[in-house]
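Extended Data, panel c. Modelled sequence:
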Amino acid sequence: MAYTTTSLDSFALQLGNLLDDPSEVYWTRAEKILTIQEALLEWGGLTNYWRARGVISVTPASSSFTDLSLSLPALRTRSWTLDQLVRQIQYSLLEAPNGISGSGMSGQVTINEILVAIQRARDRFVLDVHLPLSLHSVFGDPPPPEGLVTFPQSTVFLHRVSWQDSFSGLFTNLWREDAWSIDKSSPDWTLKPGTPGHYSEAELSPLQLQLSPPPVASGTLEALTVDSLPLDLTNPAQTFNIPDEWVHGVRFGALAQVLGGGGQITDPLRAKYCEERYQQAVGFARDARSILRVLVNGIPLPMDSLAALDQGSPFWRSQPVDLIRPGVLASALYDFLVLPPAIYSAGISLDVVQSCPIPLAGTDFIPLGGEDLDNLINECTHLLLLKCGGNEFTSTLGDHDDFIRAAAKRGSITKAKVRYFEPLFANPQAEWSRRPDIMETASA
């Protein structure tokens, strides 16, 4: 049953009264609605508050990798648009909120500066959080010379790689090594083509991968990658291909650049704050998970990390199974479900963390219980006062702290209700720790 405590219009009026702007002169209804929606998405990302069950189907012809943003787009949404984000930034900078057209702006900052800052912040977020994941197939027919494979320019990280032989159709999982270890284990490996078992990126230029040994026959290299896709900065409907609950990190990253980049708009205090909010969003997004439980034809399917699946059954991609057979495992990455190939068609039910079902019309209700509405009020008030700067803004920093503390408490309540919450959510985290894409620098 949905909450019917407070409508979007009613909540916006409450904010106007708290800000001493009941006539909505300084904070328009449109600005407040965007802020409420962002705060709700942020709350969902921090607390896993909304959870839902989605259903997909698999057949013997289905890929083993399922992107939930494509298969369950209503639950794992990636729909926040470039125009929405630009308007939010324009509101925060006291500029005319006319979106990517840039019409009516004061000249303190240009629309091009805002758009470039958004692109850079989005690229930075991809590097810092390792999102979004994509599946690529790179064909080697004939076999790549000397075992060298070149990837698209959009590739940021290669997370997992496997080789499928064209003749047999069998997959072999490839383990990441470097040139030193490969050379020491088999000094003449370059002269002995065979079925690749390892790959290295250590000694090559970016976007190139070395297979070891070089493939003796043609095949397909299947790679799970983190990609940075260019944004069409002329398209107001352009989305960011990251979960909606983390787009606020891109906003703060862009604002930090604009406010700290020199010129009339420079504001060191707000630039520092926005950078801290960006780093905070990155930290939370790295720990975020989306898949709670997997059921096949109504029967729960155990889960483990993808690295554990590769280690325990290196040829699982070539071994179709009855998915309800004991011992079959699923794997979960962020918004990615991994299943062994199926012998039979099956219905898959997924319990997932749902992106906030944000209210759109003024009569739509805020999807929170009354006990949490004050926390939402605190965060919205704080975000709306960002454009004021100075003491008016800094006096509300405690409101954001209260929001974060309330989110932590709500998350603890969720964990108390769901005792298996931590073991389930540990699967993707274990994957990144067992197969890291970046070595963290120790703090001083």
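The chain has 13 helices and 15 strands. This feature is highlighted in the accompanying rendering.
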